[in-house]
Write a structure and sequence with these properties.
Ubiquitin-like (UB roll); 16 helices; alpha+beta; Uridine Diphospho-n-acetylenolpyruvylglucosamine Reductase, domain 2; 5-stranded antiparallel beta sheet; about 475 residues; Uridine Diphospho-n-acetylenolpyruvylglucosamine Reductase, domain 3
């Protein structure tokens, strides 16, 4: 391993920049606009509107990733390519993505258009946009204040997968180089991005109070909305060993650094309950940054991953310089926003049992105010194994019902050993009243949450009567008329 890097090596629209005089808490959005790249707009500064969308490419990856630049700290694009709307036009004229949007009349006031264009830019170089729902998923993180969604979608459909043979396509073919440890200091603020676990644990030993970050989709909100300045940040972004998915025979080991967009693709046909939850976890821009470990370590009571992983019987792997510890996920969450993690320890992976070919039922549910890009009011996931017509094992997990994501142990006991029928489900629904005392808040009253928790279990019983592992039925957004084959 070569010496540590003490400056940020950036590539902004093909221009190499070595930066050593910017606070590590500066967002990519702020940096771009300060450099005069003002096509990238600030709207909500929390990843909801998409006006700040840019494309990022990490050498060695097969595609660009559209991300919210308001949630990306500048050091997080060290040694990566950043593309903004300004770079698309060439001497030959506008980029095909821009032409497509113009021809479809998809731009009106123009404020959100650069972000829309950059989400379309990713779509242009993807090779897997082979279903209508994927177009919705690609673009759902971009608001159009003039409600031009239908022409935007038509333009996206026209350009999806075009992959023109241009300078951007050539960028995708560039190989990756070995990473270096990053040690970046600006005044009293310090940022580390170790390139190996050994380097990571050395930093954590010397800086036990440093805050660990990976995707930063939650931490960055503290910076943009609360004006926090974390003095010590340690990023896990360069640790390739945390970004792997391995087949362990009877289980899948999913690295803590796996991005949720990649996990969603992997889960398709392999872990349907997990894929189902990830479809509506958030926008593609968010899923391109958010990671498995980050969602679990955040320990939010309304986090979307914990319920499905709890129901699937996952274990969590915690690693430090002292070695590795594996424990059931339902022992990891201790209290509101509190876990078993201790200083010097990280989440390195989760291990998820493979779904049985027969004799089991499993699904997941997310209830929120809107279909796309919203926070759960209540989330649930259920796993039931059967022997004949009786329940051998039940794992019923909920989010948004207590201070932590948790299993409904009383309802599980009511089901275990019972005949799998409506009477058993009703008994389990009654037992839920002893499992949870939900709160009233702006997303739903306690009464609503109690009724919802029971109705989700009833819905699971009805839905799995048709198929053991239900998947989503495509339901287009309201302003879109789906394609009809004559």
């Amino acid at each position: 391993m070569s010496a540590a890097t003490h400056s940020l090596e950036l590539d902004i629209n093909g221009q190499k920049v070595s930066e050593d005089a910017v606070a590590p808490t500066t967002t990519l959005l702020q940096y771009l606009r300060a450099r005069g790249l003002t096509a990238t707009k600030e709207g909500c500064a929390e990843g909801d509107c998409g006006a700040c969308t840019v494309a990022v490419h990490e050498p060695g990856e097969a595609s660009f990733r559209a991300v919210n630049s308001c949630l990306v700290l500048l050091p997080m694009v060290h040694n990566k390519h950043v593309v903004t709307a300004e770079a698309l036009k060439s001497k030959a004229g506008p980029h095909p993505v821009q032409e497509s949007l113009v021809l479809a009349l998809g731009s009106q006031c123009g404020y959100c258009t650069p972000g829309v264009v950059m989400s379309m830019f990713e779509a242009c170089y993807r090779s897997d946009l082979d279903a209508p729902w994927k177009l919705d998923d690609q673009m759902c993180g971009n608001l159009c204040r003039c409600t031009g969604y239908r022409p935007i979608r038509e333009a996206t459909r026209e350009i999806a997968g075009a992959r023109p043979d241009d300078r951007f396509r050539a960028m995708l073919d560039a190989g990756a180089s070995a990473p270096n440890d990053v040690e970046y200091t600006f005044g009293e603020l310090k940022y580390w991005a170790p390139a190996s676990l050994g380097s990571l644990f050395r930093v954590l030993e010397s800086e036990p109070d440093a805050k660990i970050v990976h995707g930063g989709t939650d931490l960055s909100l503290g910076i943009t909305k609360k004006f926090e300045l974390p003095p010590r940040l340690v990023s896990l972004e360069q640790l390739a060993e945390l970004a792997q998915i391995e087949d362990l025979g009877d289980r899948w080991e999913i690295g803590a650094g796996v991005r949720l967009s990649d996990l969603e693709t992997f889960s398709r046909g392999v872990l349907p309950p997990l894929e189902r939850m990830l479809r509506f976890f958030g926008s593609r821009q968010i899923k391109h940054r958010a990671t498995v470990g980050g969602n679990l370590a955040n320990a939010s009571p309304i986090g979307d991953l914990p319920p499905v992983l709890l129901a699937l019987g996952a274990t969590i792997v915690l690693t430090s310089s002292r070695g590795e510890e594996e424990l059931p996920l339902d022992r990891f969450f201790l209290a509101y926003r509190k876990t078993t993690l201790v200083p010097g320890q990280i989440i390195s992976a989760v291990r998820v049992p493979k779904l049985p070919a027969r004799g089991a039922l499993a699904s997941s549910y997310k209830v929120s105010k809107r279909q796309e890009l919203d926070i759960s009011t209540t989330a649930a996931a259920f796993f039931v194994t059967l022997e004949g017509d009786r329940v051998r094992e039940a794992r019923l997990a909920y989010g948004g019902m207590a201070a932590t994501p948790t299993r409904a142990k009383n309802a599980e006991r009511a089901l275990t050993g019972a005949r799998w029928d409506k009477d058993a489900v009703e008994a389990a629904c009654a037992a839920l009243g002893h499992d949870f005392e939900p709160i009233d808040d702006h997303r739903g009253s306690a009464w609503y949450r109690r009724e919802l928790a029971a109705n989700l279990l009833r819905g699971f019983f009805l839905e799995t009567a048709r198929t053991a592992y239900p998947t989503h039925t495509y339901r287009p957004v309201a302003t879109v008329i789906p394609e009809v084959t004559p």
